[in-house]
Amino acid sequence: MEGQRAKLAIQDPPYNLVAFETRSIRDYVEWARSWVTTSVASLDADSSLYVWLGADQRDHFQPLPDFMLLMREFPLQARSYITVRNQRGYGTQRNWMAVRQELLYYIRGNPAFNVEAEYTDIPKTLRGYYKEVGGQLTENLERSKRDTIRAGNVWIDIQQVFYRLEENVSGCYAQKPLKSVDRIIRASSDPRDLIIDFFSHSGTTLLAAEIAGRCCYTADIDPIFCEIAIRRLEHFRASARTGWQNGHAFEKELHRTALSPHPDTDADRPTQASLI
User: Fold this and answer.
1) CB atoms within 10 A of CB 69
2) Could you read off the pLDDT of 160-208 as tens digits, one per residue?
3) Per DSSP, which regions of 24-180 are E strands?
4) Over the stretch 78-94, which tens digit does the pLDDT of each residue have?
5) N or C terminus: which one in the chain shows less Cβ crowding within 10 Å?
6) Cα dist. 197→42, 79, 128, 169 in Å?
7) How big, in percent rounded to 5, are the helix, strand and coil portions of the chain?
8) Domains defined along the chain, listed by start
């Protein structure tokens, strides 16, 4: 980073699944300690850290509780525990359907918080909370600065990513909605600020930073996801499209491979491209 410090970190680590193998909670916490330490070392004296995390109701809500205890070790102040409600979840007839994602918000020093970014498109409908202002009895809608509600710490206006949305990136099953990351960026950073993301995956933070006029350094341990993030940004710059909907980042390569004659077959034999 050449001496630069980030004003905002958005981290979306794996929720204790590593190549189809689950780590012990002790190993997971030790691994988390390493990337949180690097995150904190990369942050400005006045900065924000957001962490997406899971809470498995089938396993004592891990890794969320032990991760929250871990965070007490760092020079950060807990600011909010945000719930993002999914439109779909995994259901059961013998328990409440799981439709939430957890988002933890921490700060260091006195960072920016732009409250305008918190307002949603949901109109205010409930009246009440009367109090006297200037000798007149007023209710909350009369005193409001906006006619829409703030998102608060329960976000119900975020559309879960699925294959019919333009922003969808096939194969990125932990993809976060662009709207959610855009909200974080606009609330907790200013134009031209530096943002870091150590778990790039589908490249949503990188793309949201580009759209919002911020600088972003991102990485991923998997070179495939690194390539996807690069291609998604290039795709947006070339077409203004935020993803491939039900397509994917490697369509051209697949098409060329499908059209290339197999060495054991006739070169003139017709071929057909397909995606499985």
Assistant:
1) 10
2) 898 899 999 998 989 999 999 999 999 999 999 999 999 999 999 999 9
3) 43-53, 55-56, 62-63, 77-90, 98-108, 119-123, 131-133, 136-138, 148-150, 154-155
4) 999 999 998 776 667 88
5) C
6) 11, 20, 42, 18
7) 30, 25, 45
8) 6-120+150-259 (3.40.50.150)
